[in-house]
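Consider the tokenized backbone below.
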């Protein structure tokens, strides 16, 4: 108590431009983009990877577009934050004609964008793209830099901006993105032809140049000047009431995040569905922990984000939880529930004041929850949105940690920005498991990989769990290249309870909690009972039975803490119902694990948790990834049946009624049936075997 610590420093930006890297980027990352457009893509890529220092808005270039008739048309190529499908391409000649209008609402701006796109596969740019179109410069870059926000968000921000950046910057008051901002910026730049950038209060800056390198470098240079100006200012140290170690913050987050996730999920879910669809990510940086522990921290931290154009995702204000009951788990849920209810009442009142009496929002839950002694917990309906909220929270709190006062926007401006029209076409394809989190054990095997890929394709965040080693590493690299941060490698041993508990904790720190646990880890042994090696049997017992028990124990505790239901799917086997000779150890231990799962369906139903089983037969591979189980037991099984090893898969195909080759994707589809909750089912087993009458569950 009473410790004096220096104010946090805004993370410095660095100029990362490299002509060689730009050429490699075009060749390897964006093949098909020509010269000047590829250069803009590279500039956007650099700004996108600046971390907490900057939030990129967009990078644009004015070039030519060749239509199907071979005609070259002036076009605006737009690269916005998070772009993945190439640039938006707009008819530049038409957009510039819009400058003759006296006014144009954002909904009409989006309409004009939709009807004047030259590349139908690209997403519709935000109304902010109109600013780029109205300016004459070839390359333009719009960024939100933390250091600049620290300058402009302070009282008398315009004066501070001119002092920090000189007289060759256009300084404009806050204005909502779209036509008014575009027109005022173009007019101000026309009256100040030697200006090197435009600075918008609470909205970042626009830089430009005749090359992509020049526009990008201008953003770096101006941010550096803002950083240096801040360093020259006399800033008082922050006095903190207490300090929190990173280890303690993580320990608390592991306990609090699932509770908060469950409460938020219940507050936003559809009637009759207890499962949440919320991803929660923590921010626990040391400067932010100090800010929340300082006497004036609440006033500075409980402010709108420095990136006001993200208000639609983060809401104007965070929730502050005073004196969290970390040492009283029994009452922590009640405290968080009360805090959420109070926030909701306040948000409904704010909404009604600005939208009209009696008008209520569809969602009144916070996106950022501030907890002194823990940090911030950031929520979103899917991983992409949650990550955006987390990044905005980190930038905002880092900037506020270096300030002593803040000049807020008026409430009506916050409301207008939060509810400005956006193009909803991008949201049409919301995947059914977006916002869900799964843990799949034995993920590096054929069945585990097939299950994991099926979940990832449906938008689920998946922790790929297996023993550490090359197989897990290669699976993670493969899936991360396809699905990005939805895939996470989670090496641990299911036979060690401490490792299982730690693995659950790591998933919580990444995504806030779990909705689905797929118990797939297992091993087999070919041996007659007469010749059975007891040590070999005990090895199967540890993995197949104790591993299942360890996972069920951890899952039960987690789902009780989260309080929002969940799913467990146990990957069983046809051998539970139709055991085979020479397969006694496998059949017996898998039958015991199957029975544990059935008992779990009885015990966990009161928590809203469904436990079901999938019983596959003879899955040999998933693509190029072979089954580790069959690699080990296949030769012995082939020998016992008088077959060559390469004849075994065909033998199993022919023996089922449908004469089907069973794939890992087939098993994954059965898991998806339970994960998507298409029927109120628990304690059931789906056979995935092509039809084996003797193995039908009964």
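A designed sequence for it:
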């Amino acid at each position: 108590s009473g410790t004096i610590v220096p104010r946090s420093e805004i993370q410095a930006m660095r100029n990362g431009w490299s002509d060689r890297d730009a050429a490699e980027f075009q060749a390897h990352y964006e093949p098909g983009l020509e010269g000047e457009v590829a250069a803009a893509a590279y500039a956007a890529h650099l700004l996108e990877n600046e971390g907490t220092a900057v939030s990129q808005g967009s990078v644009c270039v004015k070039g030519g577009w060749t239509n199907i008739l071979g005609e070259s048309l002036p076009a605006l190529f737009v690269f916005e934050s998070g772009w993945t499908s190439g640039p938006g391409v707009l008819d530049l000649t038409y957009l510039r004609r819009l400058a003759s209008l006296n006014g144009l609402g954002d909904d009409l701006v989006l309409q004009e964008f939709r009807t004047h796109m030259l590349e139908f596969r690209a997403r519709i740019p935000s109304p902010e793209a109109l600013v780029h179109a109205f300016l004459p410069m070839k390359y333009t870059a719009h960024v939100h830099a933390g250091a600049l926000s620290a300058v402009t968000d302070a009282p008398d921000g315009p004066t501070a901006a001119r002092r920090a950046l000189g007289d060759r910057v256009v300084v404009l008051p806050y204005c909502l993105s779209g036509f008014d901002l575009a027109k005022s910026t173009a007019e101000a730049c026309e009256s100040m032809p030697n200006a090197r950038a435009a600075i918008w209060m609470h909205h970042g800056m626009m830089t430009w140049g005749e090359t992509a390198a020049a526009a990008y470098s201008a953003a770096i240079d101006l941010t550096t000047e803002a950083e240096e100006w801040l360093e020259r200012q006399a800033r008082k140290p922050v006095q903190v009431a207490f300090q929190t170690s990173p280890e303690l913050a993580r320990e608390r987050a592991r306990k609090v995040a699932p509770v908060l996730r469950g409460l938020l999920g219940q507050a936003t879910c559809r009637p009759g569905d207890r499962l949440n669809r919320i991803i929660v990510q923590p921010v626990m940086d040391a400067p932010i922990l100090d800010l929340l522990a300082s006497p004036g921290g609440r006033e500075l931290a409980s402010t709108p984000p420095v990136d006001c154009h993200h208000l639609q995702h983060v809401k104007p204000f965070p929730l502050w939880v005073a004196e969290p009951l970390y040492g009283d788990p029994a009452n922590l849920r009640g405290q968080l529930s009360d805090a959420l209810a109070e926030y909701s009442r306040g948000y409904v009142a704010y909404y009604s004041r600005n939208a009209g009496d009696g008008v209520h929002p569809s969602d009144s839950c916070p996106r950022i929850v501030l907890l002194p002694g823990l940090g911030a917990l950031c929520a979103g309906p899917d991983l992409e949105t949650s990550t955006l909220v987390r990044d905005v929270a980190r930038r905002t709190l880092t900037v506020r940690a270096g300030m002593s006062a803040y000049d807020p926007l008026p409430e009506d401006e916050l409301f207008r920005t939060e509810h400005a029209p956006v193009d909803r076409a991008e949201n049409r394809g919301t995947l059914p498991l977006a916002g869900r989190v799964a843990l799949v054990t034995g993920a590096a095997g054929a069945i585990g990989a097939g299950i994991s890929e099926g979940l990832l394709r449906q938008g689920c965040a998946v922790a790929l769990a297996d023993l550490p080693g090359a197989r897990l590493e290669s699976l993670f690299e493969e899936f991360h290249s396809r699905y990005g941060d939805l895939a996470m490698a989670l090496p641990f041993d299911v036979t060690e309870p401490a490792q299982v508990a730690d693995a659950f904790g790591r998933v919580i720190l990444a995504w806030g909690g779990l909705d689905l646990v797929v118990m797939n880890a297992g091993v087999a042994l070919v041996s007659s009972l007469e010749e059975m090696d007891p040590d070999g049997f005990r090895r199967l017992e540890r993995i197949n039975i104790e591993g299942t028990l360890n996972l069920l124990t951890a899952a039960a505790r987690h789902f009780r803490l989260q309080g929002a239901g969940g799913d467990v799917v146990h990957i069983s086997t046809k051998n539970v119902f139709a055991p085979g000779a020479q397969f006694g150890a496998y059949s017996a231990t898998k039958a015991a694990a199957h029975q544990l799962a059935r008992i779990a369906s009885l015990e966990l139903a009161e928590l809203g948790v469904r436990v079901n089983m999938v019983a596959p037969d003879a899955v040999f591979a998933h693509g190029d990834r072979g089954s580790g189980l069959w690699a080990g037991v296949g030769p012995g099984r082939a020998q016992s049946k008088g077959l060559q090893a390469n004849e075994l898969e065909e033998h199993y195909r022919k023996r089922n009624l449908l004469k089907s080759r069973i794939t890992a994707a087939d098993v994954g589809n059965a898991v998806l049936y339970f994960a998507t909750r298409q029927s109120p089912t628990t304690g059931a087993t789906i056979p995935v075997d092509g039809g084996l009458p003797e193995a039908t569950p009964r």
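The chain is about 45% helix and 15% strand.
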